[in-house]
Specification:
The protein is of the alpha/beta class and about 450 residues long. It has 15 helices and 13 strands. Helix 3 packs parallel to helix 5, helix 7 packs parallel to helix 9 and helix 14 packs parallel to helix 15. The relative contact order is 0.14. The structure holds 1-deoxynojirimycin (NOJ). The site of 1-deoxynojirimycin (NOJ) has 9 residues, from loops.
Amino acid sequence: MPKVTFPQEFVWGCATASYQIEGAWDEDGKGESIWDRFCHTTDKVRDGDTGDVACDHYHRYREDVALMKELGLHSYRFSISWPRIFPDGKGAVNQQGLDFYSRLVDELLAAGITPFPTLYHWDLPQALQDEGGWANRETAQHFADYAATVVDHLGDRVKRWLIFNEPWVFTILAYMAGVHPPALRDGATALRATHVVNLAQGLAARAMRATGKVDALGSAFSMSGVYPASESEEDKAAAERSFRFTNLWFLEPVQNGRYPDAYVGGTDPARFGVQPGDMELVQAPLDFIGINLYTRNVVAYDSQDRNLGARQVAVPDVERTDFNWEVYPEALHDVIARIWEDYQLPIYITENGCSYGDGPDERGVVDDQRRISFYQRYLAQVARAIEGGADVRGYFAWSLMDNFEWTMGYSQRFGLVHVDYPTQQRIVKQSGYWYRDAIAANGFEY
Ligand code: NOJ
């Protein structure tokens, strides 16, 4: 039985996001978000689900923090809902919104759990979407103002912050692929939106640091292992371009003030709406890198694709989660090793986890052995990367509890804790108990 152990200071946590768990979508002065509007007015979310109630965490946060304490979490990664703080995205602050997060932070600290908030996990104020959302350059400055307001308010107790969650997803899936709000299919606008987000990241980092209250800043980037479909030079080059576009599009700008070289025939910044002086604003090196990783892509050269010259190849007969994502633990090691080698910054695994539909049996036990096995194998790869020299400081399981999985609604369950939505009853799954034991032992055998 292999034994897996972690460094003494290793941080064990769980992650969630505001829209996915809070509910209370229009309470205490909160403004409408793009996900409120999207769920209420389109048919793009499975079963017509919405985040109106979700896990009702807004009202049950004390119970949820008690659960975290029971699991022995060191830290809790949650996100702050921008429209709770600025109902119109800018202008007047909604004090009741700030008060909610202030109470949550106090509750966490009283339980001995370090708060690790993300400032943006996809719930843009609808009022800003009406002005163009992330395709409008002014959104960058509004975001920086919002970020500074929150840090100023909570920064006496919260020291470590994440700016964005998965900027690639909330730009490309929303403006290019038409999947997330505003559901556009417009490549040129999408690329401009990515640049506005990079501007926002740089401006926010400066504004947050200017409060004098921040110890460490990072962002959580969606990353994926990217592997060539064959050993041919063409496939390997295509995989490398794809790696850069998928994993580095928001990291290379903030660290080094440039876009990664991902496009066939070179990357022309004018294409993204880059204006003179922008790249200086975009560059604001982070203190650590957050990696969200679930699976891998296998990529082949594609002469028809004028952008990346690459296409994703389906991999047959592999292990998959109930979400149909391939289980490929080595990807976590490989991406950590590459990011460490290229950037030499501390790394947190800000998300990793799996969707399996197991529910309670007649005894009320959720025996989700596949999730335990998933965590064992991925965490073993984190330990392997650390042994190889990477400075990985912590790991956050996605997710603490089952929640609203975006366009899949409540049909996908990622939690260590099962949620029965009609009654809001929480049941710790067997994986949750396994995680508790792994935290207590700072490792495990499997
Ligand atoms: C990425 C996102 O950050 C999170 O919101 C989502 O629920 C999980 N991955 C699973 O898809």
